[in-house]
Amino acid sequence: MHGGVLAISDVASTTQQITFWLLAVVSVTSALGMILVRKAVYCAVLLAVVMLSLAVLYALQNAPFLAFVQVIVYTGAVLMLFLFVLMIVGIRAKDSIVETIRGQRVAAGLAGIGLLVLLSLTVGHAVLGTAAQAGPSFGANNVYAIAKLIFTTYVFPFEVTSALLITAALGAMVLAHRERLTPKLTQRDRSRLRVASGHPAPLAGPGTYARHNAVDMPALLPDGTPAEASVPLAIRGVPETPDQQRTLLGSSAAVRGETGAESGQEGDA
Amino acid sequence: MSPGNFVALAVILFVIGAVGVLVRRNAMVIFMCVELMLNAVNLAFVAFARMHGNLSGQVIAFFVMVVAAAEVVVGLAILMAIFRTRRSASVDDASLLKY
Question: What's the whole-model pTM score?
Fold first, then answer.
């Protein structure tokens, strides 16, 4: 009976060891990838891998509350915020590999090795005992125990945190707010512009008279030429630079110009 | 598992994050590396909490997460404001104070 209990705890510790080493390798590899990969999106995904493995490591150390908070707050909220901003800033943006300061990478690598040595020495000199006997506050009662601590010992920092969060939200709103420089177009302005443009009818839908009616298939004009402007802008590709925008708008304007006289399908949106 | 292993992993992740902050030029990636460093410190906090059998370390790690969330919100808003005026997220381009 006693031997059976020992065997079970043995198996549990082996499982813990396997999990730890697996996740350690995964998280260090992904963290290294974060430095080496050039695209910011890949970086974000690798960071998600690191954060999820850290969540499992928290669970391994009898901290279920932190494990869940890590998944919900970090991986769920913070990383999604990163991805949102990445989508706005430009998903195709790549880091340049040109060094602005010569020898910066070598110096950074040396500084990193120095920091690693320093931290390892400090940690090595510290007395790292074995884990204390897991009390009742670790494990199943973890959430209750943490709540008790937060609302008794740490109640003042907790309240200050709320002020911090409100300040951060206000700051983000102020920083992201943009004053409108031109007045908003009313429906009346739009209709006037549409009539003044000379093509009051709406644009042809994609695929009209073409061989397929897929959205990426331009409509055919009466003389058989494709009308580029009938394909939605999102599929034609949103221009990234003003130059591309000019070429794109210029080409569709040319299509409109050469066929506009004979067709009523083409219009100005 | 002894807490020493977890602390060693935290040290390695922290150093990787620090090198990333020094090496990368994209402000978004620098932010992510800062997050990596904060996560590494959290791991060390949790390991020490278990070592001492004291929950305070876990509570501190929780506070670190809250502050990190606030930091990311403000930082990304600043990044958006910079990107709006300069169309670039590279830290090399924001050098107007130099001249």
Answer: 0.75
Encode pLDDT of B32-56 as tens digits: 999 999 999 999 999 998 888 888 9
Element housing A24 (H / E): helix A2-36
Residues of chain B contacting A10 with CB distance shorter than 8 Å = none
Give A190's contacts (C-beta < 8 A, 6+ positions apart). Answer: none
pLDDT tens, residue by residue, A219-238: 888 888 888 778 776 666 65
Angstroms from B97 CA to nearest CA on chain A: 17
Q: How far apart are the first and last CA of chain B?
A: 55
C-alpha span between A141 and A172 (Å, rounded):
37
Nearest to B11 among A66, A123, A165 (CB): A123
> What is the ipTM score, two decimals?
0.92
Q: Which helix (H) or strand (E) holds A47?
A: helix A40-60
Q: Do B19 and A150 touch (CB under 8 A)?
A: no
CA distance A197 to A188: 14
From B22, B55, B84, residue closest to A146, measured CB to CB: B55
How many Å lie between the alpha carbon of A232 and the closest alpha carbon of chain B?
Answer: 25
Phi-psi bin for B31: left (phi > 0), alpha (psi -120 to 50), beta? alpha
Helix A142-152 to helix A155-176 angle (10° resolution) is 90
